[in-house]
Amino acid sequence: MTVDLSPVQEYYKDKTIFITGASGFMGKVLLEKLLYSCHSLKEVIIICRPKRGKAPETRLEEMFKLPIFQRIKEERPEMLKKVTIYQGDVTFDQLGLSGESLKHVTENTNIVFHMAATLKLEGNLRDAIDMNLLGTRRALNVAKEMKQLEAFIHLSTAFCNCDQEVMYEKVYEFPHQPEDLMRLAEWMDVKTLDAITPDLLKPHPNTYTYSKRLAELLVRDHYESMPVIIARPSIVSPSAYEPVPGWVDNLNGPTGLMVGAGKGVIRSMLIDTRHLSEVIPVDYAINGLCVIPYQFAQLAERPAEVPVYNITCADHRKMQWGEVIEMSKEIGYRYPMEAGLWYPDGCITTNKLHHNINVVLFHWLPAYFIDFILLLLGQKRFMIRVQNRISVGLEVLQFFTMRAWFFKSDAYSSLWDMLNEADRKNFNMDMDPEETVPMYIESCVQGGRQYLMKESPDSLPRARLQLKLMYILDRVCKTLIVGSLSYWTYGLVARLLGV
């Protein structure tokens, strides 16, 4: 039976796609989207390293069991056979490929999505350079050998040029050269490199944005001889519509804050609530990535500069962090999480002293108390370790939550403008949907419960009862603390006055 293909689907017909980082959050959604919506493609090749004793093939089988692949298994199960997996790693030369696997990749690939990266904002510089910078060079070196290459899409981040007041869709110059930093990381020992890292990073807040900026320069330098393209998503949030609403599989960014606050573990955060939130649903970002090679192929003339896409939400859809937080709290109370540490009503402030006092009182003291009780009971202690991770994460995130960010996203907007009705249905990036922001936040909260915490919707009645009990306990404790302090203060004043 002949199937009518939309223009974007027609472009992908008989194409072979090569993806690095397919096991990551965005990588999984990209793989699913290509298989589901670009079903006329020839093959998708992914590389994956063994992990925790599991071979790449086993990891792929487990990936296909995730809820996001359910619609493919129900509607187009034959597409799963079009996935070829090779053992590979961007930290190895030739991406860990050799022999027949390398030959198959270089002779057949038409489009490359280079998405592999370390997202650890607090990670050391050596690892960031090895994954994000050297890894990009290794991917480019393999792509140079591809005989039918039409597009090499490098996934960057919208925050890699954080010294700019307004971030346009272009590559910005930087005093440090990629080749110099790669050589530095090769010969300098980790201890010395860590010592000079703070001075090297300025004005960047972490090794992630720094290494991503250098990687952009490296990609740009290959534009003259290769069809390279740079895509910069902002903070990627759970899916709005597909493959399933609210899908997320990691605690990075706002999702981690939402879950941590919902569990009562995060009690204080530094956020300037006046600034606009910079998030993009993962399906909007992935749909943009899928359309980018198609648009590049339609150009009558090759652009003078490397194409750059800031994949960010439209300005009229952005809300202040304060509004988002209040909505999230209200919805979170309707869909609470089970067995929280405390009642979820943390403090949002811009005052660092206030925040630090809250952290000591409501993060560290409970952590030490709980671990002490676990020690007495002969159980494994974990709360101090958890709070260490939360502390580092919050410190890194405050650079992004205490500043205003301004992006120009004309190129990303043009992707939606060029699509016909069929492709708009297949690759949704509509910034004026019927669904409201509260509806999206509700799907995010429910997605966090279901996909991250593995809490079934059937557990909601129990979770709501637990929340009520936590509320009573919270108010009783606060009343006792305030009452005790008032009594102590009264006694002190009375003694001073001789009453």
From TrEMBL:
One of its GO terms (biological process) is long-chain fatty-acyl-CoA metabolic process. SUPFAM superfamilies: NAD(P)-binding Rossmann-fold domains. Gene3D superfamilies: NAD(P)-binding Rossmann-like Domain. InterPro entries: FAR (IPR026055), FAR_C (IPR033640), FAR_NAD-bd (IPR013120), NAD(P)-bd_dom_sf (IPR036291). CDD domains: FAR-N_SDR_e, FAR_C. It catalyses: a long-chain fatty acyl-CoA + 2 NADPH + 2 H(+) = a long-chain primary fatty alcohol + 2 NADP(+) + CoA. Its EC number is 1.2.1.84. Keywords: Lipid biosynthesis, Lipid metabolism, Membrane, NADP, Oxidoreductase, Transmembrane, Transmembrane helix. One of its GO terms (molecular function) is alcohol-forming very long-chain fatty acyl-CoA reductase activity. The chain crosses the membrane at residues 357-377. Its main location: membrane. It is a multi-pass membrane protein. GO terms for cellular component: membrane; peroxisome. It is found in: Membrane. Residues 19-287 form the Thioester reductase (TE) domain. Residues 362-455 form the Fatty acyl-CoA reductase C-terminal domain. Catalyzes the reduction of fatty acyl-CoA to fatty alcohols. Belongs to the fatty acyl-CoA reductase family. This is Fatty acyl-CoA reductase. It comes from Drosophila rhopaloa.
